Amino acid sequence: MKNQEILIKIVAYIIIIIFCLISFIPFITGLITAFKPETIQIHSPPIWIFEPTLSNYDRILFTKGNLYNLMNSFIVTLINIIISLVVGIPAAYALARFNLKGSGALLSWIISLRMIPPVVVAIPFFSLAQSFNLYDTYIGLTLSYMCFSIPMVIWIMRGFCVEIPKELEESAMMDGCSRLYAIYKIVLPLMLPGIVATTLLVVMVIWNEYLIALILTGREAQTLPVSTARFITRVRIEWGSLFAANSLIVIPILILAISIQKHLVRGLTFGTIK
């Protein structure tokens, strides 16, 4: 019986490893292409042994001006995640702890906002941005993103709040603590894994978003995902520059996920094991 369990685990690990390798093949291939000289980027059969070059990264960051677009992505993502957490966490706590009138309908409305495809609201967002002179600005893009990110934070963080026993706060308040102090000392530390997991999910959505940024930005507030489209023209596709830009989009998310891996795993599994 024990040998059978070991065999099942080995087979499961092999399947997971194969799946991970298959999933990473496109990314690894693109990353290798980003370091290839332009003359051998598209070659049949592919050339795997070559002298690496940083010319593609130099071209997209300095020659093509994508460094400015990269900074736009950082600024918009940072502003959005801060505001979404500051607004979303208190709202999630209130919905989880207090028996508010109409909270069920409010939660249904919040989750319905996540079901709306971005393409449906893209044109209304554009009309509003034009009307209030917010087109091609950080404010216009951030406000548009918050329509999606704040409901996501509220919905996810409410689930974490529900899993935290009320008795912990009640005990602290019986000992003389105010509710705010109990939240600060008890609830927030217990919610930290959930906050980390929610932050990463929201960052992934905002950092990789393309359609809304394409419609609401011109040159000043254009983000990195939108700027990658300039490498695809009717004449040719600049594969090296395209893959170099894609790596700059993916790698920060990977670094962030790895750096907060401990809290991320706890956050994603919070409440699933009793």
Question: What does the model show?
Answer:
This protein has one domain (65-269): Orthogonal Bundle (MetI-like fold), CATH 1.10.3720. With 274 residues, the protein is mainly alpha-helical. The two termini are 27 Å apart. Helix 8 runs antiparallel to helix 11. The protein has 12 helices and no strands. The mean pLDDT is 83.
* Helix and strand element order: HHHHHHHHHHHH
Counting structural domains, the number is 1
| Strand residue percentage | under 5%
Count of helical regions: 12
Could you tell me the number of beta strands?
Answer: 0
Which regions contain 5 or more consecutive residues with pLDDT less than 50? none
Main sheet attributes: strand count, strand direction, barrel closure: none
Architecture, according to CATH?
Orthogonal Bundle
Structural class given helices, strands, pairing? mainly alpha
Nearest-integer average pLDDT: 83
Instruction: State Rg.
Output: 23 Å
CATH topology: MetI-like fold
Shape: globular
CATH class: Mainly Alpha
Helix content: over 70%
CATH 4th-level superfamily: MetI-like
